[in-house]
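Aggregate trends can hide what the representation actually does to any particular protein. In the encoding step, the backbone of a single protein was reduced to a row of integers, each denoting a local shape. The record that follows shows the chain in one-letter code together with its fold in token form.

***
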Amino acid sequence: MTASRTLRLGTRGSALALWQARHVAELIGRQPGAPPVELVQIRTEGDVRTDVPLWAVGGRAFFTKEIDRALLAGEVDIAVHSLKDLSTVLEEGIALAAALTREDPRDALVSRDGLLLSELPRGARVGTSSLRRRAFLARSRPDVQQLELRGNVPTRIERLRKGDYEAIILAAAGLRRLGLEGSVSEHLSTDAFPPAVSQGVIGICARASDAEALRWLRSLDDREARLASTAERALLRRLEGGCQVPLGALGMVAGPSLRLQAAVCALDGSQMLAGQAEASATLENATTLGQSLADELLSKGAAELIAHERDSRTAVEAP
């Protein structure tokens, strides 16, 4: 590939995904001599199967695999993902070329009347599509009624305004990127609601053999986002989790140190296993840190807790 060749950027077609793709295209375009970038919209299984709760979907890469297949097939040159959606084990031949500067990793409560989570009335209807959010919500407010919530960010907010819910929980990063941060009633603490692994980080992938594409992407890699997400993803990989596991984690770089906190929670909120660890802020240490904290959680019973939750859901889904 020469510098004059257009880079084809694969993305989902949601408002948030397109914002992320245009942001990446802009960052590439700021570099001297950068090639033009063309956006290629690709529908994923997650875009098609909107009638199915995310927790009921088997497998992983629900929002990413079609884009990555197009990348491997040479139909696009770059794949842009919300890194939290990307499997911790990449397809052979794909490289995570850049992790962009992290946006606010917290979850946000958006309520119809501007109420905080603690102020919602008993029995309030709260919408979320995430098992992780459901579990930590059950621990914080076991009295509320949890309802499924699918669709893109604007659709979810519109359903709230129509009265389908008293409140919904979304990623603060998506709201901010779409200019909707004014709708946030409360940013939920990372202690009570540990965020999804890599939440707030945009991940950019390319073919591992495509030196020219990688050239334009590697300069976009943010050190702190890379270190934190590497630790979080290593932890998730060791626990063999995915978006269907009630697990939250957050890595933070503070000077020369990388701190990682994580928690696994029963869906009914009755049990939570948490831990934290710290190491020097290097990529090698980030991976080791995630693995060691996962081992600590496993020693506390995380495997049994996760297996119990999976078995419970399998029983519910069985005909």
